[in-house]
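Supplementary Note 3. Input sequence used for the single-chain structure prediction.
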Amino acid sequence: MIHARRLGEKASSDPAGVEAEVRGVIALAERAKDPEALALALRALALVHRFRWEQADASRLVDRAIGLAVRHGLRFAEAEIRATRAVVRQDRGDIAGARRDVAAARAALARAGGGATDERARLDSSLELQLAVIAQNAGRHREAEARYRALAERPFLSEGVALRVANNLALVLAARGAYVAALAASERAVAVATAQGPAVAAMARQTHAWIVVRQGRLAEGMAELDEVAAAYERAGIPLGEYDIELADAMADLRLLPEAIAAARSGVDEFAAAGTWLMWVEAQVRLARLHLAAGEPRLAAELAAEVAARAGAQRRAAWTDRARLVEVEARLGLGEPAGSDAASARRAAGRFERSGDLADAAHAYLVAGRAALATGRPAAARTALAAAGRIAARGPLLLRVRGRLSLATAARIDGDGAAAVRQAGAGLRDLAVHRDRLPTMELRALASGHGAELGEIGLAELLRDGTPAQTLRWMERTRAAAVLARLPVVEAEHGADDGRAEVAPWRLAASGVRSVPAGESPAPRGGVPPTARSGAQVVWAEPPGLAQLRAGLDGRVLVETGLCEGRYVAVVVRLRGARVVDLGPRAAVEEPLQALVFALRRLASPRSSAAAQAARVNAEARLRVLRDVLVAPLGVRPDDELVVAPVGPLHGVPWSALHDGPVSLAPSATAWLATAGTATPPRPGATVLVAGPGLAGAQEEVDALAAVHPGARLFGAADSRVAPVSAALASADLAHLACHGVPRADNPMFSSLVLADGAVTVQELHRAGVAPRRLVLASCHSGADVAYAGDEVLGFVSAMLARGTAGVVANIAAVPDVEVVDLMVGLHRRLAAGDTMARALHAARGGIDARTPAGFVNWCTFSAHGAA
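The predicted structure, written as discrete structure tokens, is reproduced below.
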């Protein structure tokens, strides 16, 4: 009996390690016909099953144990076992049943005779812990915190109860934004848990990692979550709780597909195990993520389902969270209900009273938006002000949301200047968060948190600001990831062929990651390679008009923006600057989509008739785009343009829309950086690379070798990753005639195919590979992907971020053999000293654009940067 009770204590900390011993005690107790030992051993086995989420088995065993205790009048054992059943019932979402078990356990304990004082105190503390957990799961955080603090002062606490008090107190403190105190409590829990066993140690580490992520230390928290996953797997514990913590972290990183996959995994695992308490929490996360991913209808369906189950569990806080998703979904669909604002405001009040700052601020923001959508600006103003007030006490990303609330409230008041100030403050906070992230893609994705702030500021400045102020704001809200100077990572040398392998590490965590086709995901437990230097924090003031004009040296800057469904542009000439309205999104995006389709058909036409039809279609769409995007600018035909596109405009063939030279850049600041880093050519430092399996690639580099005597030439058979990467890193001019494999879902994993395999954009970027000038003759090499927050990722932006000063690339598939003439013309002008933009302009003028292939090449290549 004593052994069975001790195994029950150990079952929660090392379920896999005690199972065989527990089963042995059950067999021994059955042979000895000892009901108390048998009941306690069955309880221990139920806890083993509970930690493996085998809830049906846990329920069956604990019910049998209670039956034994009741039949034989074992009051103290009955109280112990009912306390365990309260835990199991909570897991299954039966909160009322858990409360009944706690009450029945206390009654049994009162009727039990004898028993040591310390044993009775420990059991009573365990029952009090269950009431605190019930309050916490119901969202009554102030009540839960008070119960945990009182419990922590009690004598005779078991190690298991002491651990859970510290761990759960840490979670409650984090929910109200007290991160320093939360981490202190969590570190106490980790210290206790480490001595108890692997299962509880993993649980305590998971809480610590979650708090670190919530505090904004994302890379550190993700690395710790990765270690937690490995610990769970070693302990034989399902990963559902890990999955939903991972989903939270991925959402903060704006990795929405990965976050949805992680949340879905948790939902499915909880449902299969019958762990309905945690299923509710996972399903709410999943609904929120689908809402953030632009799927309001699906989000509403998921939220309605979970609201019903949360209501049945009498968990008002989770019901409120689900109902808020429904309100947001209706707002997203343009179908707000008259009661939505009041419903969200009541939920916000309940969250605020319970001490849940993040949910309270979010609910007030939703209430404000709902009131605004239903024509009640005064109510909206009150709710938004409350959101801003609460968020000011929270972590960094919550403060960004608070700034959004206050900026929206200022717009309701008609105070545009205040709206711009609040939006600017939020963007500065976001810059701090972004600069903590370890990779270019995570920084670009993080900018999405500020997309609404950027649009608010732009709308106000378009209404009341000057062209200079408008341009300055545009520069603050775009391409921040390109401007960061991230650390160069040491290459890891692996295979005997000498290829330098840089692991495709995106996050120091997570089995949910994207990797290039044909590669295996890095195993859990991976960590980032050692960096040579720290990243520079970038929040510098954008250049003024005088600095821009000096750098442009007679060129005309055209910086585009998107605001409230319309494209605009700021045009900066040697004298004067003005803002131009370019029209609604559809007027640009519909002909652009049709043009891309026509160019795809022209690249490999099925017949001459099909080619002719595609050509007519493409020319018509080019005329429309020229009329919409270039004609309103008022530039002269021979002006040299510097264009900073936004969103889908990165996919526009700008060189085909204007008669003069054109160079592109993610922003004016980024373009000026390429002008400032341009250095005189280094004679002989030219690298020409042909990739395998590409018709005309070898012919192309052979023809270019005649233009560049002394160039280093890599033929299709010897263009291996390691030597090519090393050569590119020190090249003045590089030319890559290789197959390109675009990845629209994750452009940093787009790749170039070389003789011994593919090299990804991320590998080159992290290794610091950046020739001064680069020509990418592969298909889709210039098709960088635009993200929320006016960020852009892909081959071109990655090279510019590393210091490349000029790139020529294309936005579509190109005919392989026919591109040789264009490339030879381009390199002749480069050898004569032209910039990329002027060399490409001259080369385009020398090709026969009457043929389908010539027309595609004439349309799709663009120059980027100043060199």
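The radius of gyration is 32 Å. Confidence is low (pLDDT under 50) at residues 491-539.
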